[in-house]
Design brief:
- This protein has helices at about 10-25, 30, 50-60, 85-90, 105-115, 130-145, 160-170, 190-200, 235-240, 245-250, 280-300; strands at about 40-45, 65-70, 95-100, 120-125, 150-155, 175-180, 205, 220, 260.
- The chain has about 300 residues and is α/β, with parallel strands linked by helices.
- It folds into two domains: about 5-130 and about 285-300, Aspartate/ornithine carbamoyltransferase (Rossmann fold); about 130-285, Rossmann fold, CATH 3.40.50.
- The strands form two sheets. A five-stranded parallel β-sheet has the order 7-6-5-8-9, covered by helices on one side. The chain has a four-stranded parallel β-sheet with strand order 2-1-3-4, sandwiched between helices.
- Helix 3 links the parallel strand 1 (about 40-45) and strand 2 (about 65-70).
- Helix 4 packs across helix 5 (about 105-115) and helix 6 crosses helix 7 (about 160-170).
- The two termini are about 20 Å apart.
- Bound molecules: N-carbamoyl-L-aspartate (NCD).
Amino acid sequence: MRNLIDITDLSVDEINELIEVGKDIKQNKEKYFGKCKGKQLATLFFEPSTRTRLSFESAMLSLGGSVLGFSSAASSSTAKGESIADTIKTVSSYVDIIAMRHPQEGAATIAAKATKVPIINAGDGSNRHPTQTLTDLMTIKSEKNRLSNFTIGMCGDLKYGRTVHSLVAALSRYENINYIFISPKELKMPQEVLDILKGKNIKFEEVENLEENIGKLDILYMTRVQKERFADEKEYERLKDVYILDMQKLKNAKQDLSILHPLPRVNEISEDVDNDTRACYFKQVENGKYIRMALILKLLNIAKK
Ligand code: NCD
């Protein structure tokens, strides 16, 4: 039995295979219908979500399985004071696999210890979000036809954004990637994530200015300032619009730049960028469903062929 708590729970070969299966599902959807007949997925979301929860549900339904769950802590017994472990033990007696999102860092690890049913971490606080990373990697592979030899800029809230933490952990295992971390001082990449790179002698730069650095990038990964993680609302208000990517800023960018964003977007990408051929964030949304289909098949040990 396998869980996906951290992206490094998967080997590089397994990630590459998931991407290939995800691409095959995208091309040959009908081939996969019915593969999860009789299987049930629970989506337990103690935090808001649109894409992650609905893509998991859509993925399982497209595989012929069924789904149940809740979309807020308020509608579960958590509101009565039930522990994560007890909720998970309960749900795992109903279903075959669980995708869970929780505001507490480490919640998915607690859940995995409480059950033998595979647990997928769909985001734990500001810690990790491995299935978003699979989505991001599938998109980069589709756009660039490689997962090595490029310069990636990660821009915005690098402190609280769990997607960039998982993405760095994943990319650190591929070759010859340059990292430019673009954030205000207050929202820098956590030391623990930088240490992953330092431990492998991988170079990175930390800068504050997007415009001055955009021209160097092959991939620009924009992120939302994570309002819900700020203790001080005034601090959020001060920082929330620090980066806004618009057509003006893109003037200095490469023609084959790929712009990614896990979404939801607030203000950090102007809507007129959506029509630019370099915008990939709605392609990411689509890929997210297919790679989650591939992941469900893998964790349930269901043969693809
Ligand atoms: C991200 C998340 O939940 O961390 N959203 C997502 O899953 N696509 C990013 C965010 O909320 O900013």
